[in-house]
Design brief:
By secondary structure, the protein is of the alpha/beta class. The chain has one domain: TIM Barrel, CATH 3.20.20.10. The protein has 9 helices and 8 strands. An 8-stranded parallel β-sheet has the order 7-6-5-4-3-2-1-8. Bound molecules: pyridoxal-5'-phosphate. GO terms for molecular function: pyridoxal phosphate binding. This is Pyridoxal phosphate homeostasis protein. It comes from Streptomyces poonensis. InterPro entries: Ala_racemase_N (IPR001608), PLP-binding_barrel (IPR029066), PyrdxlP_homeostasis (IPR011078).
Length: about 240
């Protein structure tokens, strides 16, 4: 193995141990939690190594980086997640490679995603990004819909051709009542997921937890954790 592949294998093993321990502590089966490797700012060669090491889900947050990377890795058996704030003018490009968009947070974006998914002949999974620092009906600093906006946005996704409502996503807030209380934030997301599934039973994905707080997310019931730096290393630049 190359040095880099060895490094990634070691990091993956550590993250795998953490997820397994968190599942055991929570009385959950390991298979209930899917690891998504957040490969933003890292090259396509790393995505290829991760695929060879058994990773099946990767995530990116900027279309201009993700689009060429996904094209270079089109031969790999990967599910691509888009997790960044998404402008409508990038949607046509994103639907060409993203299997799941985790940052759906406003009606205009849903309309654009639906139109471009249909045009491209693609089926795009959608997670509503929930802002827990936004107040009930506000919007988050880093994107996201307030809890009070979930029901309406979910209905819009569910009724949109080319889109599939898969569930909810959040990022632990840095401000507001949940600042520094990741476990409480993720438990709130789980409650919102339970409410969502009453109307949309198939929308059972709960994407929460990153390198620093994946244990809290698993404890709260997350089905997907999005891990970047703990697998790939501390990012050389912001992203
Ligand atoms: C970068 C990013 C992650 C991964 O963060 P790490 O702290 O590197 O694990 C997860 N989710 C989103 C939305 C991100 O932008």
């Amino acid at each position: 193995m190359t040095d880099r592949k060895t490094e990634l294998a070691e990091n993956l093993a550590k993250v795998e141990d953490r997820i397994a321990a968190a599942c055991a502590a929570a009385g959950r089966k390991r298979e209930e939690v899917t690891l998504i490797a957040v490969t933003k700012t890292y090259p396509a060669s790393d995505v290829r190594f991760l695929s060879e090491l058994g990773v099946r889900h990767v995530a990116e947050n900027k279309d201009q980086d993700a689009s060429p990377k996904a094209a270079e890795c089109a031969d790999l058996p990967l599910t691509w997640h888009f997790v960044g704030q998404l402008q409508t003018n990038k949607v046509r490009s994103v639907v060409c490679y993203a299997d799941v968009v985790q940052s759906v947070d406003r009606p205009k974006l849903v309309t654009a995603l639906s139109k471009e998914a249909v045009r491209a002949g693609r089926d795009v999974g959608c997670l509503l990004q929930v802002a827990l620092d936004a107040g009930e009906s506000g919007r988050g600093d880093r994107g996201g819909v307030g809890p009070g906006g979930i029901e309406e946005l979910a209905g819009l996704v569910a009724d949109s051709p080319g889109l599939r409502l898969d569930g909810l996503m959040t990022v632990a807030p840095l401000t507001g009542e949940y600042a520094g209380r990741e476990r409480a934030a993720f438990e709130r997301l789980m409650d919102l997921s339970t409410a969502l599934r009453r109307a949309h039973p198939a929308a059972n994905m709960v994407s929460a937890g990153m390198s620093a707080d994946l244990e809290q997310a698993v404890a709260a019931g997350a089905t997907h954790v999005r891990v970047g730096s703990a697998v790939l290393g501390v990012r050389p630049r912001l992203g």
